[in-house]
Amino acid sequence: MQSECSLSSRLEDYIEAIYVISHNNKVARVTDVSKKLNVRRSSVTGALKTLVSMDIVNHSPYGYITLTDKGERLGMEMVRRHEVIKDFLVEVLGIEESKADKTACLVEHSMDTSIMEKLVELIDFIRRCPKRAERKFSINEEKTSPSNVEKRCFSCDGTMLGKIASWKPEERSRS
């Protein structure tokens, strides 16, 4: 993501973990973050010091960890990015869920925001397609056999292709 604060991908992982834990358990503790990220508690404490200095989290020794407003926004965006990438991998490419989850963790940190938004548009389009069940939208299942080509809905495909064509040239070249 490389946000406004030029966070490392590791710090983004901490923010995302704190966000998820605090929304599931109402509070986050160093031990919870340590378990979720499979790191030592001392590593969590070191990361927290950095995040406190950046006004992303609130934390005092042996206390709960809370996200500031800025941290909440960042955490929500990181979770959203992760879910969008994971959904694309599972729903569109047919990747197994645990593999898609691991891949989303790696990709979410480096994907440009404009590419992310285009991915969201594509996923929304696929979810709204009236022939979705017929087509299955899996790269693995939709080879170039004549029966699959005949099933294509040229109206819907044309709409999406038109949308892609209207994207600015620099957006197309980055994707």
From the N-terminal CA to the C-terminal CA, the straight-line distance is 16 Å
- What count of helical segments does DSSP give? 10
Query: Order of strands side by side in the largest beta sheet?
Result: 1-2
The low-confidence parts are: 138-147, 171-175
Tally of domains: 2
Beta content: under 5%
**N-to-C SSE string, H for helix and E for strand:** HHHEEHHHHHHH
Gyration radius (Cα, Å) is 20 Å
Helix content: 55-70%
What is the 3D shape?
elongated
What oligomeric state do the depicted chains represent? single chain
Computed structural class: mainly alpha
The mean pLDDT is 80
Report on this model:
By secondary structure, the protein is mainly alpha-helical. It has 2 domains: 9-74, Arc Repressor Mutant, subunit A (Orthogonal Bundle), CATH 1.10.10; 80-174, no CATH class. It contains 10 helices and 2 strands, in the order αααββααααααα. It has helices at residues 9-25, 30-37, 41-53, 69-92, 97-107, 113-128, 132-135, 146-151, 154-166, 169-174, and strands at 57-59, 65-67. A two-stranded antiparallel sheet has the order 1-2. α1 (9-25) packs across α4 and α4 (69-92) crosses α6 (113-128).
Draw up the topology in text.
Blueprint: H1 9-25, H2 30-37, H3 41-53, E1 57-59, E2 65-67, H4 69-92, H5 97-107, H6 113-128, H7 132-135, H8 146-151, H9 154-166, H10 169-174
Antiparallel strand pairs: 1-2
Helix pairs in contact: 1-2, 1-4, 2-3, 4-5, 4-6
